[in-house]
Amino acid sequence: MLIGISNRNAPRRMRGFGLIEMMVAIVVGLIVIGGAINLVVGINQANNDTIQSTRLTQELQALASVISDEIKRSRRIHDAYALVGRGVTAGTGTFDAINTTTAGCIIFGYQGQSDSTLAIGSATGLTLNDTGQDSKGAYPIYRAIYRSNNAVWIATDKTAVTCNTAGVQLNTNQVKITGLTFSCGTAGATSTSCSEIDLQLSGQLTSGDAFIRSITRTVIQPIFVRSGAT
Questions:
Q1: Is residue 121 part of a domain?
Q2: pLDDT tens for the 230 residues of the chain, in order
Q3: pTM above 0.90, yes or no
Q4: Which of 50, 51, 76, 87 is most buried, taking the most CB atoms under 10 A from its CB?
């Protein structure tokens, strides 16, 4: 009787986790870790997609700004006062027409550098403050901005240009231009009276995974021509 009581009051032996308990704990831990890893990867991917999308938008906006700055020069005459009293008929001036009849292309012109011996684009050419332009012989600059081979090009000449004239690429090779349209935003206007050109530019990135390359962004920008037709 005393022996039985003594056995019941004896301290129990400490036990650890069994094999099954350890396996269950490992599986649960792996599930938690896997979920956390997937969450981190998902956040990083979302951040990367946002960065690439923002990059595309910025590239298109910068390109639209360059195009806009060029088109704003349309019909610019260096010395408008020189035309006073000449009896020029409205809409028949050298640079009056802004041609958007060809899809994805615009052709326009303005008065350029004052010295015909200078190359187009020379920084020492005609300036707005050049009062001696008559003696130096300011001459026309014609421009064509168009889309070809998934890029935007600008062609320049002192006589005439077309939508096929060889030019300089405006966008970087990191962007593929998928759409370019020019339209007159002035109601009822003609090519010689249009004062607003509506630009629509679309593009995609050329690098990244398939999803990144499939993202398309579009920039729409009204461009107001500073000079009216003569």
A1: yes
A2: 445 555 555 556 656 667 777 888 888 888 888 888 888 877 877 777 777 788 899 999 999 999 999 999 888 765 555 544 444 445 445 677 889 999 999 999 887 655 555 555 443 444 433 344 444 456 678 899 999 999 999 998 887 889 999 999 999 999 999 999 999 988 888 888 888 999 999 999 998 888 888 989 999 999 998 776 55
A3: no
A4: 76
Phi, psi of 177 (to 5 degrees): -85, 115
State the residue for tokens 């060809």. 102
The DSSP secondary-structure symbol of 186 reads S
Residue 86 resides in a domain: yes
Side chain identity at residue 135, one-letter code: S
**Domain residues for 212?**
47-224
* Domain assignment of residue 196, yes or no: yes
What tokens were used for 217? 């962004």
> What total of structural domains would you count in the chain?
1
Helix (H) / strand (E) element for 111: namely: strand 105-111
The answer to whether 201 and 60 are in contact (CB under 8 A) is yes
Q: Mapping DSSP to helix (H, G, I), strand (E, B) and coil, where does residue 72 land?
A: coil
94 domain residue, yes or no: yes
If one counts every other C-beta atom within 10 angstroms of the C-beta of residue 198, the result is 15
Contacts 24+ apart (CB under 8 A), 180-188: 180/104, 180/146, 180/147, 180/152, 181/103, 181/104, 182/100, 182/104, 182/105, 182/106, 182/145, 183/100, 184/98, 184/100, 185/222
How many angstroms separate the first and last alpha carbons of the chain? 127
Write the CB contacts of 161 (distance below 8 Å, at least 6 apart in sequence). Answer: 107, 142, 143, 144, 155
